[in-house]
């Protein structure tokens, strides 16, 4: 029997493979049953790993859920760049709303309920909050600001405005309707959001 | 012994009084220890009530927490109306940010962490979500839209824009920084938010 087979026979898989399997099991639980299903107990059992291994690698089940989500989500960090910031933002925000609200390959109610669950638990789980920021929200914010800077350099956005604010007034506005659902989150809303953020609400 | 005294002697308080005491106990727990401390067990014990009573009146501990918060918060639903929408919004948003971030009479870290906890739990507690909307977010949205309508009638906001969007681009933008803290939530931010929402980001 080869050494590899022996190791396999004793159930010793390479760490990278184990980690990958744990992340996949956590993503499956998250997408099918929601954030509350992602406990160290259930993930360890589904992945055929020991709970000790999970405790060693992740500071909380929430942090594991966040990392698993971004490692295995259908979601891509794409930002179209056609040179027309209004068209690019409209395309990006419409895709974002579609992803949040429409049925996906693995998520029946769209990614929205999963993201909302992650953000929800992040409010009382600092480890999840840090993982969410590191793996998702901070890089997305940086990508958007980079696109805004290019648009400003092309003369499409005003000089002197704080570009970080625009991120909150576009994606943050969508999150507001996702998390506090007093008003509908639709593609039409995404289109109107972009126009309002670019043109302003004040009469001229 | 009078009938009232007899009832008191047996510990039977009027329902309104019991309810008030439960809400106060729930608010105290929420403000001092956060949303996770608001369980039927702990509130019943702190209020000297039976858990059965709480189950009868509130569909979940989260719903009780939301109602308690809005019944006993320092927070007022005020919206200044000086006739100048830019000044009124700036004043309102600055107060809102101050309330979220500064130490209060009863909340050491500002109301922000309490509100964030309520919105967080609302993502997996439909009863809390409904109570939050009924007691807080929907009436606030309606007040803001009413102020916007008056400003539009005065000729300060463009006709034809969806005024609900402005709510997301002002208060929703603040919630975005509260819930996903990748960028700071300050009074300067509130001022810049209002100007950006009114003037737009596009170069002219």
Helix content of chain A: 55-70%
- Identify the CATH homologous superfamily of the largest domain in chain A: Tetracycline Repressor, domain 2
What is the CATH top level name of the largest domain in chain A? Mainly Alpha
Beta-strand segment tally of chain A: 0
Task: State the distance separating the first and last CA atoms of chain A.
Answer: 82 Å
Number of distinct helices of chain A: 10
- What structural category arises from helix and sheet content of chain A? mainly alpha
Task: Summarize the biggest pleated sheet of chain A.
Answer: none
* Rg on CA atoms of chain A, Å: 20 Å
Range of strand content of chain A: under 5%
What is the assembly state of the chains in this entry?
A: homodimer
Number of separate domains of chain A: 2
Q: Unreliable stretches of chain A, pLDDT < 50, 5 or more residues?
A: 1-9
Domain HTH tetR-type (chains A, B): 16-76
Protein name (chains A, B): TetR family transcriptional regulator
DNA-binding region (chains A, B): 39-58
Keywords (chains A, B): DNA-binding, Transcription, Transcription regulation
């Amino acid at each position: 029997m080869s050494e590899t087979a022996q190791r396999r026979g004793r159930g010793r898989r390479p760490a990278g493979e184990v980690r990958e399997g744990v992340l996949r099991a956590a993503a499956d639980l998250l997408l099918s049953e929601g954030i509350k299903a992602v406990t160290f107990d259930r993930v360890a059992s589904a992945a055929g790993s020991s709970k000790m291994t999970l405790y060693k690698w992740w500071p909380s089940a929430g942090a594991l859920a966040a990392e698993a989500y971004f490692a295995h989500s259908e979601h891509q960090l794409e930002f179209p760049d056609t040179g027309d910031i209004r068209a690019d933002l409209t395309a990006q925000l419409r895709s974002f709303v579609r992803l949040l609200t429409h049925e996906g390959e693995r998520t029946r109610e769209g990614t929205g309920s999963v993201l909302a669950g992650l953000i929800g638990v992040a409010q009382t789980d600092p480890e999840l909050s840090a993982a969410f920021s590191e793996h998702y929200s901070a890089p997305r914010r940086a990508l958007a600001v980079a696109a805004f800077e290019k648009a400003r350099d092309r003369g499409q956005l005003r000089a002197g405005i704080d570009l970080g604010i625009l991120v909150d007034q576009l994606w943050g506005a969508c999150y507001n309707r996702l998390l506090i659902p007093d008003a509908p989150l639709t593609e039409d809303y995404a289109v109107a959001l972009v126009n309002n953020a670019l043109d302003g609400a004040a009469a001229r």
